[in-house]
């Protein structure tokens, strides 16, 4: 029997409504040479019976039951530790894959000797599909250009699904525990370990959007101080990390951090998010301190220039 080349890691916690569809979308892949680790992360809604049945019917499934939900990061790390294949990927328990996703990602990685291969996706709002990083061209990128695209967020972002990772990229790196959004803390570090990344924007994954998503605030007008504080802290750390590890990417990393502040200041103003006013003032102070550098930046867009002028005008006076 051929040794599996890919491990698919799925965590599940009280998502019985979506779980059958998600698991079926993995099991029916045209590329079949994979291990499938399902971690039942302390579910209380009958998920255990669903995953037990699938594990009995398909030998590729390795089922892990966890009695208490200690967060997604803990079990993602558990999945990485358990994986024994050259490559791994993550599928969320409320999302689904097109049947050819693994085959396309595997072929891309092998044809281009890539450490990370990526595809495009859809955001599924109750059947209404919106394109999410869908594009025509094939991108084969070295470390610097791969990180540059990651920070630009025009062709792909840090979300672990849609990506096939060489497992060795995670050597010495694990998802950060006890945080709200774990991928923003770690995926850029994984990209830093990659020599070549390849991306083809054909949509082969569907992100199911609903009120229970941890990142639902991205698609609506809400924003909590705790989430905003975490992003600001993570992006400050990211700038410092990348500037040290890959100095060539430092200008993009610094701009990306400040660009996020500009967009969040605009969101707070446009939606009158009063809970975030203290963080708003802190971001304005930071933007003002860096305003000369921003105005010289070739990355700054016209829209950002207009927002920057509005949010710093009182500081300029």
From TrEMBL:
Which Pfam families does this chain map to? Glycos_transf_2
**Where does the Glycosyltransferase 2-like domain lie?**
7-169
Q: Mind listing the GO molecular function terms for this protein?
A: glycosyltransferase activity
- Which UniProt keywords are given for this protein, alphabetically ordered? Glycosyltransferase, Transferase
**What InterPro entries is this protein classified in?**
Glyco_trans_2-like, Nucleotide-diphossugar_trans
On the tree of life, the source organism's domain of life is Bacteria
User: Which family does the record assign?
Assistant: Belongs to the glycosyltransferase 2 family.
Q: What is this protein called?
A: Glycosyltransferase family 2 protein
Q: Which organism is the protein's source?
A: Paenibacillus albiflavus
Taxonomic classification, please?
Bacteria, Bacillati, Bacillota, Bacilli, Bacillales
